[in-house]
């Protein structure tokens, strides 16, 4: 989510963080949480976790010393003590027997690997999206999560947002008629800041563990630009805006549509920023994904929103300010809309924590995440290969295209794997 992910230092410092206050939940009943990945998004989500009374954040981990210390300051302020420990290596967090669950908010390349390592270590996981870089990595991770019985939630918090629930209620009430198309608009930029990485000496290992930061991605020379901003539009490190925002919106579309399988045909066009590096992700794009019943999912770079078109009208929800546009005011008459802060995090975090206790499947569990990410990854590959692709949702493979099928996976740098 580009808007949230580039908080300034001042914006971070004034972001909502729970202050020190007594916890009514006894220590023995609290879920003990470790946090891995403490960039702007990681600290933002951590701030929301800290508001929950029945958890105790006991460890924070990041390749950056500065980010580790800033996160520890947040935790210490919340609990009015200094018990939270900082770590540079995720292994030190996962080997702690007193930790029940982890929040993973690293760069995209780490999400799948760390989720698998956490599951094998007996930890439950709340993981930011995209939860994997590729289709094959997602399938391996989904199977791993199920094999270990891990409670795993993808950070697609819009699924728990009252604004999207309102849209769901309107559509399920039949107000727009038969749903024929959904348009996903990702915003005006391609998921991150563009810049040409300039190789330079890396900081000391303690200040910033660059090799660990790269994770499974191919080695490349250190660059401040790459490690701070442009990694989100570098294909080796991420998947661009489709992989970043796409799963949020695609999952909502799948939920509201309420039918499987997914799309079977992908086509589209993309353009790249003139100052982008050679392996950049698309800066401008247009994608059309067609389902077997001719229902259509479209993706573009208009201001962030979702528009739902039906046989009797349409409804559009802004992902910027939460406002709703309608083809007719009558569409929502009699359907109550819950008022809540935009981009509310609490319901989604609460769903995860409640599921850790009840052992039920979270609303965006691993198979839900895999189905949404498959669509996003297939759209990305369609643009990267510059040709239409036919997709078999059941087999998670492309039809009649060996090159596209090879691109369902990427080589992982040793020693990292699912």
Give a written overview of the molecule.
It is a single chain. Helices cover 34% and strands 18% of the residues. It folds into 2 domains: 2-158, NAD(P)-binding Rossmann-like Domain (Rossmann fold, 3-Layer(aba) Sandwich); 161-341 and 366-418, Dihydrodipicolinate Reductase, domain 2, CATH 3.30.360.10. Strand 14 and strand 15 form a beta hairpin. The protein is built from 15 helices and 15 strands. Helix 6 (108-120) runs parallel beside helix 7, helix 7 runs antiparallel to helix 14 (366-385) and helix 12 packs across helix 14. The chain has 418 residues and is of the alpha/beta class. Residues 1-15 have low confidence and may be disordered. It has helices at residues 2-5, 9-13, 40-49, 65-79, 90-94, 108-120, 135-148, 162-172, 210-214, 224-228, 240-244, 246-257, 346-358, 366-385, 402-406, and strands at 31-36, 55-61, 85-87, 101-104, 124-127, 152-154, 179-185, 265-271, 284-290, 296-300, 305-310, 313-318, 324-326, 389-392, 397-398. The radius of gyration is 21 Å and the shape is globular. The relative contact order is 0.15. The strands form 2 sheets. Strands 13-12-11-7-10-9-8-14-15 form a 9-stranded mixed sheet.
